[in-house]
Amino acid sequence: MLSAARKKLLKELINKLELKSIDCNLLDEALTHPSFNFEVNRENSPDYERLEFLGDSVLRLVISNYLYDKYEEYDEGKLTKIRSYLVSDNFISKMALTIELNKYINIGEHEEKDGGRLKESILACSIEALFGSIYKSLGYNFAKDFIYKMYSSIDMNGEEILFSYNSKEILQQYTQGKNKDLPVYKLLDEKGLAHNKTYLVSVEYENKELGRGEGKTKKEAEKIAAINALRLLRENKEI
What we know:
This protein is mainly alpha-helical. It has 2 domains: about 150 residues, Ribonuclease III domain (Ribonuclease iii, N-terminal Endonuclease Domain, Chain A, Orthogonal Bundle); about 70 residues, Double Stranded RNA Binding Domain. It has 12 helices and 3 strands. A 3-stranded antiparallel beta sheet has the order 1-2-3, covered by helices on one side. The N and C termini lie far apart (about 60 Å).
């Protein structure tokens, strides 16, 4: 049984996202982190994990269909890379923040104190579970239109996405084409607790820094550093 306060909060989200006919209990399930049920002794109550599993599949199908129709000239490899970027935790967690989804998540007190409401993984799971609840409650066509609307304000330029996705490979091709040397990535700083770190990385070529990147993993930080390096090289008309 949902409390009056919880119903009021969910109603606010329903109005904001124009989900008038959605099952409120299903929406609550989609926005309940496992830590909440554990801390309030609701261990047999559902959390977002099953709906996240479903929503992930719905999102991938919707985006796959969109890309298939939009980029008729792209092969399977390019379409897969673009989809991977558009459905990544990093990408969809930022999307969740644009609708302030973090405000509506049921989360345990310990996880709350640990910054869980803003963790990339929790935000990504929550928005996928939201998509799952919309699909189960309102059907595929409504879910498809909702996801399209979510993505409509985003520049989904295929070439730019591929440029970002392949940034380390493109930068390596550039440096090896000049003198066969590889770009060098250096860890400059790492901040935060062990399970929630942020890494700052630079990329150098011929002892000159070309770019820096910050990310939740070293790999992500390196990719962003490579993107920034390539942008600099483009500005200087070197690529």
